[in-house]
Amino acid sequence: MKDLLKRYENKEPEIVFHWNDPETEAEGWTVINSLRGGAAGGGTRMRVGLDRNEVLSLAKTMEVKFTVSGPAIGGAKSGINFDPSDPRKKGVLERWYAAVSPLLKSYYGTGGDLNVDEIHEVIPITEESGVWHPQEGVFNGHFKPTEADKINRIGQLRQGVIKVLENSVYSPDVSRKYTVADMITGYGVAEAARHFYEIYGGNLEGKRAVIQGFGNVGSAAAYYLAQQGAKIVGIIDAAGGLINEEGFSFEEIKDLFLNKKGNTLVAENLIPFEEVNKRIWEIKTEIFAPCAASRLVTKAQIDTMIDAGLEVISCGANVPFADKEIFFGPIMEYTDAKVSVIPDFISNCGMARVFAYFMERRVQMTDEAIFNDTSLTIKNAIQNTFNHNSSKQNLSETAFELALQQLV
Predict the structure, then answer these.
(1) Where do the Glutamate/phenylalanine/leucine/valine/L-tryptophan dehydrogenase C-terminal domain residues begin and end (predicted)?
(2) Are strands 287-290 and 240-248 parallel, antiparallel or unpaired?
(3) Burial classification of residue 10, based on how many CB atoms lie within 10 Å of its CB (0-12 exposed, 13-18 middle, 19 or more buried)
(4) Would you state the pLDDT for residue 118?
């Protein structure tokens, strides 16, 4: 696996598109790792300090994810080095998408990512640049449909991603109009933990869980884990955290979800970050869902959690471990040898899978069909890993090897 990984990491990307905004200090890159299957896909992010290497690592990560979620295309990513709170943001995005539109019409598909919203920014701004849909390039490069079929499938994709959830099994509150895009990634993180226990032995119900991050992914993961009977015993995000060693009730977790402000945990008895960060790793817990930013989880935190009974990590964040390597650094390798680590490209593939699902010919548009498809995709990936390695250790190493064999 290490040899495959090294060869994959060191291989130069096929295309690097570099852009300097003529009106501001913004600088952007689209990195297309490969045009496997005739196309490549990956979202657009914006943050201060972003550089080409970050975009490259994310493009390679997307390519691995597509081996699980489909379609069988190459990985790509776009990134803009600019402050997303700057009032000039909209103009920067308009000029960026105008510049990158030839790629988006031919062989590259994009979406929302960190600080760039799929619904309110990516779709309307790419339309202004003459792109039918930000995934048009994947249709043209990979699926090569007839014009009529492309119109139908783009319509299906457009409706599906922003579909308002109507089924109370999947929506914390149907009156608030949560969409598929709001909930699906966190749902996948929870389903990954459930399928792990079903396949490797055990039961999710009654297991204690700690959640890191309470944005879209972490809050939804907490909601669905609690719905399945897991006990959320701790939550930590940048604003602070909460601890209840007996486990919060499902109703309490639901209220926390409904009361969050944007991506921030809100509660009357919020523990300050410094205090919760000292205490939370020592709580008795079997499940850890890191769903905050990348590269945060340290070896010391892992060791403390293992001593407290940790069994499985379901990764909601891309590359949650504090390693500098693109994928499988020393902290992840160490952790993978001690407990079961479900890698991010399986556990957080929900949104990528939704895109793939709606790109297919006519599919069912019900909440149940959409969510079951993501659940089954994750289950199949974990089952495939188990079939090659039934041990609860080195799960991620096995999953990476299976993915890289398709790419190298």
Answers:
(1) 181-408
(2) unpaired
(3) exposed
(4) 86
- In DSSP terms, 287 is beta-bridged to 209, 312
Q: Is the confidence at residue 2, as pLDDT, over 90? A: no
Strand order in the sheet with 340-342: 240-248, 231-237, 208-212, 287-290, 312-314, 340-342
To the nearest 10 degrees (0 to 180), the angle between helices 350-359 and 367-388 is 120
The residue written with tokens 């045009």 in the block is 35
For 132, the token pair is 């039918």
Q: Which amino acid is at 341?
A: V
Asked if residue 196 lies in contact with residue 382, where contact means CB atoms within 8 angstroms, the answer is yes
Tokens for 58, please give them: 């994310």
Domains of the chain, each with CATH number or no CATH: 8-144 (3.40.50.10860), 180-406 (3.40.50.720)
For the entire predicted model, the pTM comes to: 0.94
- Single-letter residue type at 376: L
CA dist., res. 295 & res. 308, Å (int): 22
Place of tokens 């006990």: 231
Chain segment 93-123, per-residue pLDDT in tens: 999 999 999 999 999 999 998 899 988 999 9
Length of the chain: 408
- The count of other CB atoms within 10 Å of the CB of residue 259 is 12
Query: Backbone phi, then psi, for 235, in 5-degree steps?
Result: -135, 135
Output the average pLDDT for the chain. 95
Tens-place pLDDT, residues 212-249: 999 999 999 999 999 999 999 999 999 999 999 999 99
Residue 325's SS3 state is coil
According to DSSP, the residues that pair with 78 across neighbouring strands are 30, 44
Which one, of 105, 53, 101, lies nearest residue 79 by Cα?
53
As a whole number of Å, the end-to-end CA separation of the chain is 11
Angle at the Cα of 368 from the Cα atoms of 366 and 374, rounded to 5 degrees? 110
